[in-house]
Specification:
alpha/beta, Rossmann fold, Helicase, Ruva Protein, domain 3, 43% helix
Length: 329
């Protein structure tokens, strides 16, 4: 178990954050070989108080990544297998009448956990998908007029297959916008796949994972990230980048103000993982595609030209002038 950390954005707090993050990252990489950038982005989203959408073809380790991150933290974890017959009450909970007490008793749903793993989220109906909207944005659930607050930290890690259309429902824009970042696993390298055969050819490696942090520590890590300084110039750069997506001729839907906020929070987390208590424009640039691209909608002309939203964001990042680097406080 990682040692208890101190709060604040001082050097000691950052040192403790780096130590705890290194333990979690190393633990996840025991079962996710050859994907250090994907694991790092997962940590960034966790420390940014966000939610992660893992989108890729079947069999590349989407669910394994979600489970490995969940097992690395000693906290409450619930897994939801999204299917067409899943009901909203299965996610949020339901009020059941108690005959003896003669009153309604609330039975919490699967969303009442620190880490919620949603497998194949696009297989559920839009009505069931929308059951997550309030929880993801406001960290609370309202059932029968009563609001229940979700315990921090709260993170949704959802997976989906982008190429299979049979029996799936596209995620609504409102829900995609609530995911802080989208990551694609991609196929492993030759060496990583050979190592995977050795590691996973015997007993399940995931079963050997032990927690190296807990919910209390994660909350303290988040407090450290909140204290990371962001200069006015970098804030303006974040807003300028979001504005550029709204004006891009290749996009019919640009980044929302929520996207700007998520990009700022993620940049804070990335800076902390780099051992800095201030954000650089490089942090924003490095996260722009992962944080913004899945929220954007291309025009029909861009789709015909096979221009992905990732390519549009990367072009905007390359063209947008950089602000002056902020001085370290």
């Amino acid at each position: 178990m990682a040692r208890r950390i101190r709060t604040g954005s001082d050097v000691a707090g950052l040192d403790d954050l780096l130590e705890a993050a290194s333990l979690i990252r190393g633990n996840v990489e025991r079962v996710i070989e050859g994907k250090p950038e994907v694991v790092r982005l997962s940590l960034v989203v966790l420390l940014a108080e966000g939610h992660l959408l893992i989108e890729d073809v079947p069999g590349v380790g989407k669910t394994m990544l979600a489970k490995a991150l969940a097992r690395s933290i000693d906290c409450t974890v619930r897994r939801i297998q999204f299917t067409p017959d899943l009901l909203p009450s299965d996610v949020t909970g339901v009020s059941v009448y108690d005959m003896e007490a003669r009153e309604f008793e609330f039975k919490p749903g699967a969303v009442f956990a620190n880490l919620v793993v949603g497998d194949e989220i696009n297989r559920a109906s839009p009505k069931t998908q929308s059951a997550l909207l309030e929880a993801m944005e406001e960290r609370q659930v309202t059932v029968d007029g009563t609001t229940y607050v979700l315990e921090a930290p709260f993170m949704v890690i959802a997976t989906q297959n982008p190429i299979e259309m049979e029996g799936t429902y596209p995620l609504p824009e409102a829900q995609r916008d609530r995911f802080t970042a989208r990551v694609s696993m991609g196929y492993p390298s030759l060496e990583a796949e050979i190592e995977m055969l050795d590691t996973h050819g015997g007993p399940a490696a995931l079963d050997d994972l032990e927690a190296v942090a807990d919910a209390v520590e994660v909350r303290k890590l988040i407090d450290v990230v909140r204290g990371v300084h962001v200069s006015d110039e970098v804030k303006r750069y974040v807003v300028d980048l979001a504005t550029a997506t709204r004006q891009a001729p290749e996009l019919r839907l640009g980044a929302s103000p929520r996207a700007s906020l998520h990009l700022l929070r993620a940049s804070r987390a990335l800076a902390a993982l780099e051992g800095r208590d201030y954000v650089l424009p490089d942090d924003v640039q490095g996260l722009a595609s992962s944080v913004l691209a899945h929220r954007l909608l291309p025009t029909a002309e861009a789709q015909v030209a096979r221009r992905s939203t990732e390519a549009v964001v990367n072009d905007l990042v390359a063209r947008l002038p950089l602000p002056e680097p902020p001085r370290k406080r």
